[in-house]
Amino acid sequence: MIRLHDTRAKKKVEFQPREPGKVSMYVCGVTVYDLCHVGHARTAVAFDVIVRHLRARGFDVRFVRNITDVDDKIIRKGLAEGRPAAEVARSYADAMAADMDGLGVAPADVEPRATLHIAEMIDVIRRLEARELAYAAGGDVYYSVAGFPNYGGLSGQSPEELQAGARIEVGENKKSPLDFALWKAAKPGEPSWESPWGPGRPGWHIECSAMSHRYLGDTFDIHGGGSDLIFPHHENEIAQSEGAFGAFARYWMHSGMLNFGGEKMSKSLGNVVTIRRAAETHDLEALRLLLISVHYRSPAGFSIARDDAGQPVYPDLDEAEARLDYFYRTLERLDGFAGTLASPPTPPPSDLATRFVEAMDDDFNTAAGIGHLYDAFVLANKLLDDPKAAPKTERQSALTALARDARMVGTTLGIMRRPPAEFLNSRRARLCVQRKIDPQAVESSIAERAAARAAKNFQRADEIRAGLKQRGVELMDGPKGTAWRVV
RNA sequence: GGUGCCGUGGCCAAGUGGUAAGGCAAGGGUCUGCAAAACCCUCAUUCCCCGGUUCAAAUCCGGGCGGCACCUCCA
Q1: What DSSP assignment string belongs to A280-299?
Q2: Nucleotide B40: nearest residue by CA–C1'?
Q3: Tell me, what's the ipTM?
């Protein structure tokens, strides 16, 4: 049984899909007018993990995530850069796809773009007009909030309270401050489409009502997005969709914001770290691990510090990457020991699988789930370290089960999906470049040290160790020779 | 002003009635020629404060204090 926090109910509720075994889900994606930042990454990763877990639990999930490719900011950006808005949108949509891929965020089953669904939007607006929930005014069309008594139900606000703060901008033709644009009359130089109300373009909210209906129908299971979309975006979607089709999403899920220095990371505040920027210095899998180390609904922090040269550094990302390094190193050891086994099932040495699924079933508690993963890895290393702990066949069987369970966890969380050596080698190579370490020089130092050790010249050997250590190279002597890593 | 969220050890962070997960940092140890890695031990009688309910509260209720978000574009 899966429980999830429903924004409208304001509590955790039991999840009962509309059709047994099937989940239909719509999540608001981004407006593509710039590169995605780590805040966007958080929301994308959060819902990616939710979808992965639902699938792991056997649900047939149909997942829709839209792309908003027409709006004021895209148009403005196009004017500033001297290129068509459509081109701006396309280039940033491509950038987003690449960034999401880097983060291990799987593409949605459908990724509809607003500009390709104008006809559907017009259809929704006409339905609203027919029900007297929409009115045309000066080429614009507005939603009449007064006609929708449940307005405010999601965000917990009453129309009267909202009324107080709202106001009508100059140039708008609305009758009431709470009314919002469904269709905006074309202005010179802006992209526009033909409509029953004349040339224009859609308001922001209508695309989600139109596209969720097109791909998921009158009603569907889960609607998600960042918590900053609760009002007005999702409130307005409800008004539109319930107004036009009588029903809408059955559960509402919202992910928390990513804060930096106590403030929300956003372009208007200028404290943005793009996914691309993070990828320059870190493995994006580390960013992913960092993001899922906090429960998806809690506000999360992202620390930024300055190094001696005044360049920004990211301590949280460093730590997450070091943890990921531990995971992969342990996995590599497990593979080396357990890989040969073809044995009958043994009672699992840990209850990782059970505990992880339990944590995830309870509102997708990735933070608790990762805690269980640490427990399992400590146990794995312990078994690997101690040959006398149990007969070899039992240890192999237990460790094989552990490796299998760890990878199951990794599949749901979207981490540990590469062969360990691939991660470890690429990380070391990257750190070498960053620290200006020459791998060849390290190897020859190691050879020199090996010779010194063979000659029992431990003083020389320790000098070499210390010299490398100073440059951030750590040596690890083992039965198969000396390995090294950058710390 | 309205709405909602939050306040857990030096830092990060789980935990919505049953007696404080996990990670980082720190100290000690096992192992090692020395190290590193790995593992072990120590590290919150207590969960912002004050009341209340209860056999039992970090968890529920009331009141403070502090922080954040939304109410305008925002993942």
Answers
A1: HHS-HHHHHHHHHTS-TTS-
A2: A382
A3: 0.95
